[in-house]
Amino acid sequence: MSFNSVIFLGCLPFVLIAYWLLPKRFRWIMLLIVSYLFYMSWNAWLIFLILFTTLVSYFSGLLMEKFESKKIKLICLIVTLVCCLGVLFFFKYFTFAVNLVIDIINLGNADIAQFTFSLILPVGISFYTFQTLSYVIDIYRGRIKAERHFGYYALFVSFFPQLVAGPIERPENLIPQLKAEVKFDNEMFFSGLRIAIVGYFKKIVIADGVAVFVNGVYNNVEAANGLTVLIATVLFAVQIYCDFSGYSEIAIGVAKMMGIKLSDNFNCPYAATSIKDFWRRWHISLTSWFTDYVYIPLGGNRCKLWRWMINVMIVFLLSGLWHGAALTFVVWGGVHGIYQIVGKLKNLLIGKLVSAGKLKLPKENIVVTFIKRAVTFALVCFAWIFFRGNSLSDCGILISKIFTDWSACGAALEKIGFDMPALISVMFMILILALARYISIPKNDNGTLLTKTKISQTVVYVYLVVAVAVAWFALVSGGGSSSFIYFQF
User: Fold this and answer.
1) How many alpha carbons fall within 13 Å on the CB side of residue 455?
2) Taking phi first (over 0 means left), then psi (-120 to 50 degrees means alpha), and beta for anything else, what does residue 362 get?
3) Chain segment 360-377, per-residue pLDDT in tens
4) Fewer Cβ neighbours under 10 Å: the N or C end of the chain?
5) Structure letter (DSSP) for residue 443
6) For residue 120, what are the contacts with CB-CB under 8 A and spacing of at least 6?
7) What count of other Cβ atoms lies within 10 Å of the Cβ of residue 256?
8) Which of 199, 187, 261, 169 shows the shortest CA–CA distance to 9?
9) DSSP codes joined into one string, 331-373
């Protein structure tokens, strides 16, 4: 089940009631059962995969803490890496890797057929695998102690709000909260509810709304023209942000209603003034994971420039591959790696010119900031073409159309079969304006709107709930679906 399914919305109130009514010593049992049932709702057999990953990492952690020998610790770490990453590779990348080898061989005029091997991709496998790896690696480094209570550790791996799409939690943040004595806090509960409502609004109203146009263009690239591709690409930037940040806010909100604080995963990424700044704001938990467990061990920036470039490309190519077993994702990661390298070289060159007195930088003001944000957003949108494109050939067609094909927009819209009733269009624009109004209202750290009265706050949230309900009903009645993009990762 997903967060926007009727079953989840119907069961969540009972889970919350049971959680707060049960004594503290029984809460973890209830949450673990709910988390496993939540995961099994996609495919009951997949529970054995998460149990295998949990058991291997749990016992490896205990063994590493028990023995002082560095050799034994290293063996335990290697076994965990091989087992956990082996499961991830087999289910997510095996077919892709085999077909990639076949494609390379076929370049030499061979005629080997593509390998077909149907496997169910376990939802969230990339997320919970990274959580188990961070746990074992941190024990190996001596940063944390092994968790001896298997139930709490299993709950850390499978905690249902963030199980299938993050945020990727660190053990030192989540496990102590799962074990803590938490008393019901009215303010915290309703703060979580408000955060979840905004998350549902982003997902169902905004992301699912713009997906109609985006899918119409990207799934029918030959019929699109330059203008429709440009619009669809910008709208996809809106879609993926609202989809993923919406999921994260629902997860954070649901957990907060249980007195548990998950990590923030987004911080206004499209307000970034550089690509480096963008990755400080986008999917923060993944960025910090790759920084701590890949980038820094490779040497980070404490090395020669050429080596730093290699480190950056390795991290971003792996990040792209993490998102999906397709060359489009690898290219997307590579593009962002190139952005980082070019940005670094540009800054070094500017620094030398400024030091030599050959260049004077303009003072930072609203115009300069706007230009930086616009350029960054344009670069991010260009990279999104590879992320959303169904194949590299489709991406090539889409990019070429942006620069060459600016035929009549109306004809292109008709060709891609885009059809949205006028009433839904008007309603959608009104809801977009409502979101803009909501964003413009400053908020406290707990998500509470700083409006003049509690009545005005209530009106905003009631409107958001009504908007979600109307958009969800329109989607379902029209035969549409509403799955989260990051569930496939």
Assistant:
1) 0
2) beta
3) 877 888 888 899 999 999
4) N
5) B
6) 43, 46, 91
7) 24
8) 199
9) HHHHHHHHHHHHHHHHHHHHHHHHHTTS--PPPP-HHHHHHHH
Contact 250, 200 (CB under 8 A): yes
- Joined together, the tokens standing for residue 236 give 């996809």
pLDDT digits (tens, 9 = 90+) for 28-77: 999 999 999 998 888 888 899 999 999 999 999 999 988 888 899 999 99
Based on its alpha-carbon atoms, the radius of gyration of the chain, rounded to whole angstroms, reads: 24
Smallest Cα–Cα separation from 328: which of 395, 278, 423, 404? 395
Taking only the tens place, the pLDDT of each residue in 409-428 is: 555 555 555 545 544 554 55
* Catalytic pick among 149, 283, 323, 336: 323
Round to whole Å and give the CA distance between 140 and 112.
44
Bridge partners, residue 449, by sequence: 443
Residue 336 is among the residues annotated as catalytic for this protein: no
Task: Categorise residue 167: left if φ over 0, alpha if ψ from -120 to 50, beta otherwise.
Answer: beta
Tokens 């660190």 found at: 170
Q: Which long-range contacts (CB under 8 A, 24 or more apart) does 259-265 make?
A: 259/177, 259/182, 259/183, 259/184, 259/185, 259/188, 260/174, 260/177, 260/178, 260/182, 261/177, 262/161, 262/162, 262/167, 262/169, 262/174, 263/167, 263/168, 263/169, 263/170, 263/173, 264/167, 265/166, 265/167
Contact status, residue 238 vs residue 170, Cβ threshold 8 Å: no
Question: What pTM was estimated for this model as a whole?
Answer: 0.85
Phi and psi torsions of 449, nearest 5°: -70, 140
Block residue for tokens 């496939």:
488
CA separation for the pair 144, 432 (Å, rounded): 45
Q: Which amino acid is located at 421 in the chain?
A: P
Sign of CA dihedral 25, 28, 34, 37: negative
CA proximity to 325, closest of 177, 472, 126: 126
CB of 99 within 8 A of CB of 113?
no
- Whether the pLDDT of residue 177 is over 90: the answer is yes
3-state secondary structure of 89: helix
